[in-house]
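Bench notes, bay 3.
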Amino acid sequence: SIAILLYLARKFKTPDHWYPSDLQKRARVDEYLSWQHVNIRGKGSKLFLTKVLLPLLTGQPLPPEKLEGVTEELNVVLKQFEEKFLQDKPFIAGSEISLADLVALVELMQPVGAGYDLFEGRPKLAEWRRRVEEAVGKQLFQEAHEGILNAKNL
């Protein structure tokens, strides 16, 4: 949860870039963390549930028109994310990775795990993903997402 991430950052005095002491940078992180619940998380999780879990539980594939609607909702928030939060910066809060970037990419991996490559055709988003993976470490990133990336094989 966001509350636990913020608690851990404060308790263990993580490097400043994760949750910046600079008030403007921290405001950008806080703004994203507040926005993402009903936007990136809400729409990304909905696509994952609709495309992977519901068919698994019901044994029935989702009607294509329903899946199309859910995908379009996600596309709208992805555009907002690029325009409002990424803009022309390497990371959400500026030149360094923060908790906002980590949370954002983790949430975006759910639709990817459902077989929807939301980075395709979005060079700004794909480049941001590459920077976040490199900052975290590619091997750690892959290990952390192994389960979700294999969910569509259930």
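Next record in the batch:
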Amino acid sequence: QLAGRWFLVGMASRCSYLAEHSHRLEATAVTVTVLDGQSLAISTFRKLDGTCWEIKQRYLPAQAHGRFLLKGRGYGSKVDMVVGETDHSSYAILYYQKGQSISVKLYGRTSRVSDTIVDKFEQRIRAVGLSEDVTYYFPTYGFCDSVDEFHILD
């Protein structure tokens, strides 16, 4: 049900890179494909220095429904992803945890979502101890229609 195209609307994270480069946020879209009925193949499309990139990741199903695992290279590089809330047709709020660090992302089926959904997102952010000063909203225009470069993260 998560399959299809989504737009990254907002993100809350204590990531220092995000804080330092927040003025350079680019419109970001993802395409989710369900593989073998369980795993998620996620292609992220975004610009970096004017070039459109595709970043491919594969999330494996974890023990519980709505939980997935991205295995990275090296020790301690795995990321747990949990579907916090979604109606499958307009929005999804996802949690990402790597070690002690947690991030919350809001995706929409369109690049803009209703104020009600933004309120839900901001409640979820506060519930995990994040705040507005580490919340970033992404541009609603300038999406990549085609890819100039691609990169596979495994």
